[in-house]
Design brief:
The chain has 317 residues and is an alpha+beta fold. The protein has four helices and 19 strands. 4% of the residues are buried.
């Protein structure tokens, strides 16, 4: 056993200690202090753990820092450990991981693990929450491990009395997004932005949800209202079909590429596009973008009806 008073002598001499050494103090003073008087920019003082094995192997546990104590039954136990593993000992492809374990309910389990390509919390499905606190938010980000919730700005899933955002794990490998606020007044719960600033939002009020795209007159120019909608509307080809993955369900709709030349803003993607691996990149349609064309065509039809009714009335007179 080495007393604390011998520590400075051993370190100052650069001693190599071949046998296990315990440094004991009988108060709350530091057991060991490492001091460097080097004035350059290099690191120091340094503490190094070196496993000089003659036969290193994959997954070797190469070092442990252990924090031990006694419980109220005078039994020794390990409160927590930091463990270093040599995952891959091969020259040129070495990998390592560092694991932090803590006691939970009388059992030691993995709290955090630094792997070569990822950092993992709650390895092996440990029921331990993860929380990030901000300057003004106690739960800026929270993982509710027991319920499999991912929460933002809240400690529980949004509801009538809880605002914030949360992803809820559901069946069929689904994650349900919950967005909430605690007022029935009109409020945005999602805002979409790009380099032109806000371009859309999701808004909730007392009983309704609005899906909004930018439409303020101050954003627009070259506005005209005298244009031919009927001719373009006649070019659309509403169809009935089923999707190949859902053969038993017939739906009404359009083929995206047939709409693209008539209402291009309604279509996303290009006909027959593929990615760099040759896999299809399918087109999509936002059918709400057809509403202005339908509205204008209906107005034109109503105008013609009004004209015909006026002529009929004149003939009857």
């Amino acid at each position: 056993m080495t007393r604390a008073s011998d520590t400075a002598r051993l370190i100052g001499a650069g001693a190599t200690i071949n046998d296990g050494t315990t440094i004991t103090v009988d108060d709350n003073s530091d057991n060991l202090t490492l001091t460097s008087t080097d004035a350059d920019a290099s690191a120091g003082p340094n503490l190094r753990f070196y496993r000089n094995s003659a036969s290193p192997a994959d997954n070797d546990l190469t070092g442990v820092i252990s924090f031990d104590g006694r419980n109220d039954n005078s039994q020794d136990f390990t409160l927590g450990e930091i463990q270093a593993y040599m995952n891959d000992a091969s020259d040129g492809t070495e990998d390592s991981s560092i694991t932090h374990t803590v006691m939970n309910g009388g059992s030691a389990n993995n709290a955090m693990q630094f792997n070569p390509t990822e950092t993992v919390f709650n390895e092996s499905s440990v029921d331990r929450d993860f929380r990030v606190e901000g300057n003004g938010k106690e739960n800026l980000l929270k993982v509710d491990a027991g319920n499999d919730f991912l929460l933002i700005g809240t400690s529980s899933l949004p509801s009538a009395s809880v605002g914030g955002a949360g992803f809820e794990s559901a069946g069929d490998n689904r994650m349900i997004l919950n967005l909430g606020c605690t007022t029935t007044s009109s409020r945005n719960v999602a805002v979409f932005r790009n380099s032109n600033n806000g371009v859309g939002s999701i808004n909730v009020s007392g009983t309704t949800t609005g899906f909004n795209t930018s439409s303020d007159y101050r954003l627009k120019e070259n506005v005209v209202t005298d244009w031919d909608a009927t001719t373009r509307l006649k070019q659309l080809k509403p169809s009935r079909f089923n999707f190949k993955t859902d053969k038993d369900t017939t739906v009404d709709g359009f083929l995206a590429h047939e709409v693209q030349s008539i209402v291009p803003v309604a279509i996303n993607g290009e006909k027959d596009a593929v990615d760099k691996d040759g896999k299809p990149e399918y087109q999509g349609i936002d059918q709400s973008k057809l509403v202005p064309l339908l509205t204008k065509a209906l107005q034109e039809a109503l105008a013609r009806i009004d004209t015909l009714e006026a002529e009929v009335t004149k003939l009857k007179g």
